[in-house]
Design the sequence.
């Protein structure tokens, strides 16, 4: 079975010529996989291109992990086609897996092995980078290579999985909630490495239930809920149509009256000498109106995932 804890190592590092990028790294066509309990994914159609970070965003139970398992051929669809690099996910699994770095959502490691031994084990099985490269990546993530992974904290175990997937520099990284349990500094390291990967033309598919993470690193986002793809958008478009909650306090509260007529702005409530506003779409008209006021304090809250999805259900027809 290919469901190894550290995914499957690419072998391009040994000097093999990089395989063709003529075909898109990921193509899902009408893919349906419904479990006995009724959960799963339905009629998913997505194409992910070379050199992009594609974020797969959805709440718990949306179908993110199911989709990733379909990509890896760990489960099989009841209908539809899953293709990677133009190859059939099932028939050509061996050739495909050589080019993928995979971080599962529920990482299973060999508890008694250290990270170094874990990586060496996979390198023996199917190739992997040399010791110096392993050291380099461990340094990047401040990962202790020599402690048994059983003694590592949750975040440090996650780093073992991430380093294992990243250090082979695969053509396609498939990461299921990669930054869960990582502190903000390490999250930033992950995002930086992912940006580097796509800058060199490789592709990243990552799932998340956190809008801010996806917004920070992804180029395009697939919104998934209840097993269905609600929309595929560029990050800027999601931000533009999302509802922001803005709190503003001013020196002279009488001046706040001018905000009532501003495009996209509606007043939710008065809070002390300020207002809590709801802003639909661009923040620019509000910012322009605020320029004429004596602003003492201003805070803008990121829309919740729920609000983002609502904007796609309730918003204007697309
Ligand atoms: N092996 C399984 N057997 C039966 N139902 C399953 C199985 N795996 C997942 N499901 C159901 O399919 C739906 C999608 O689950 P999935 O794990 O893909 O969601 P997810 O988006 O990854 O959620 P999370 O954010 O919690 O990881 C859920 O309703 C879940 O209960
Ligand atoms: Mg999941």
Sequence:
């Amino acid at each position: 079975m290919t469901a190894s804890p550290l995914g499957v190592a690419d072998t391009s590092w040994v000097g093999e010529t990089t395989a063709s990028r003529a075909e898109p790294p990921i193509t899902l066509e009408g893919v349906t996989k419904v479990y006995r309990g009724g959960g799963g994914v339905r009629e998913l159609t997505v194409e992910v291109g070379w050199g992009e970070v594609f974020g797969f965003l959805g709440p718990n139970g949306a179908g993110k992990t199911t989709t990733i398992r379909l990509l890896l051929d760990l489960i099989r669809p009841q209908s539809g086609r899953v293709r990677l690099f133009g190859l059939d996910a099932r028939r050509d699994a061996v050739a495909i897996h050589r080019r993928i770095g995979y971080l599962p959502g529920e990482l299973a490691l060999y508890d008694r092995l250290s990270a170094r031994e874990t990586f060496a084990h996979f390198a023996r099985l199917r190739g992997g980078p040399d010791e110096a490269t392993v050291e380099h990546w461990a340094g990047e993530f401040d990962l202790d290579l020599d402690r048994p992974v059983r003694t590592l904290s949750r975040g440090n175990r996650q780093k073992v999985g991430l380093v294992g997937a990243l250090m082979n520099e695969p053509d396609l990284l498939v990461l299921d909630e990669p930054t869960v349990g990582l502190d903000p500094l390490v999250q930033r390291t992950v995002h930086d490495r992912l940006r580097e990967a796509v800058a060199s033309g490789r592709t990243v598919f990552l799932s998340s239930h956190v809008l801010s993470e996806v917004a920070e690193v992804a180029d395009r986002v697939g919104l998934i809920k209840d097993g269905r793809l609600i929309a595929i958008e560029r990050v800027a478009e999601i931000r533009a149509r999302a509802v922001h909650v803005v709190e503003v306090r001013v020196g002279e509260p009488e001046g706040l009256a001018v905000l009532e007529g501003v495009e996209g702005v509606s007043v939710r409530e008065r809070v002390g000498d300020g207002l809590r506003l709801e802003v639909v779409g661009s923040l620019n008209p509000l910012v322009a109106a605020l320029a004429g006021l004596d602003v003492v304090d201003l805070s803008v809250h990121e829309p919740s995932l729920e609000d983002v999805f609502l904007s796609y259900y309730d918003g204007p027809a697309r």
Observations:
- The chain has a mean pLDDT of 89.
- DSSP finds ten helices and 14 strands in the chain.
- The two ends are 42 Å apart (CA to CA).
